[in-house]
Amino acid sequence: AFSPAAGGFTLVSVQGDVPPAMSGHRLVWEPVMQRAILAGGHGGGGGVWVLDPSQATWTKLAVVPPIGAARPSVTVEPHLGHVLISHAELHHSVDLATGEVTEHVMTTSPPPLTRVGSVFDPLRGRVWQFGGARPDGQTVDALWSLKFGCAKVP
């Protein structure tokens, strides 16, 4: 946790299970339930974990198949309680309440990419993805859009 008053980061004591040591993962904030979602990564099997910062506890969701890809795109749809995880041509949504995983086969999709920037637009109910790297390492500058969930108008 960043604490400007302390002048730097503070190591947090976590209760119970913790995710395995890993790299190449993504950590994103889920604003409705006020928690962090950890997905992907190398070293330790990856998977999807939920951090409750108010209790300093991690919970591993029952994710099948394991999501162990490095540098996935992770997008939270907070109003429906789902997270979309994309890596290369694989797309999974995870229900954050039940841990249920659904694999999605897209009729149109970006080419197999890693390291994609991704964000959920709650006003339009869309996931926006930009850029990424092809398997040969070449980066791309394409913008993709996916209708996901439902639009929430403030």
Summarize the structure.
The chain is mainly beta and 154 residues long. The chain is built from no helices and 13 strands. Helix content is 0%, strand content 38%.
Topology:
Elements: E1 2-3, E2 8-9, E3 26-30, E4 35-39, E5 48-52, E6 57-60, E7 73-77, E8 82-87, E9 90-95, E10 101-104, E11 117-121, E12 126-130, E13 143-147
Antiparallel strand pairs: 1-2, 3-4, 4-5, 5-6, 7-8, 8-9, 9-10, 11-12, 12-13
Description:
It is a single chain. The protein has no helices and 13 strands. It is mainly β. It has a four-stranded antiparallel β-sheet, with no helix packed on it. A four-stranded antiparallel β-sheet has the order 7-8-9-10, with no helix packed on it. A hairpin with a 4-residue loop joins strand 1 and strand 2.
Number of strands: 13
* Helix/strand structural class: mainly beta
Low-pLDDT runs of 5+ residues are 150-154
Order of helices and strands: EEEEEEEEEEEEE
Radius of gyration: 16 Å
Strand order of the largest sheet: 3-4-5-6
Beta-strand proportion:
35-45%
Cα-to-Cα separation, first versus last residue: 30 Å
Average pLDDT across residues?
77
Characterize the overall form.
globular
The portion of residues assigned to helices is under 10%
Counting DSSP H or I runs of 4 or more residues, the number of helices is 0
**Biggest sheet overview:** 4 strands, antiparallel
